[in-house]
Amino acid sequence: MPPVRGKRGRPRRRPDVVLADRGYDHDKYRRLVRALGVKPLIARRGTEHGSGLGTQRWLVERAFAHLHRFRRLRIRWEIRDDIHEAFLTLGCALICWRRLSQPVRSLALPQ
Question: Fewer C-beta within 10 Å: the chain N or C terminus?
Answer without folding.
Answer: C
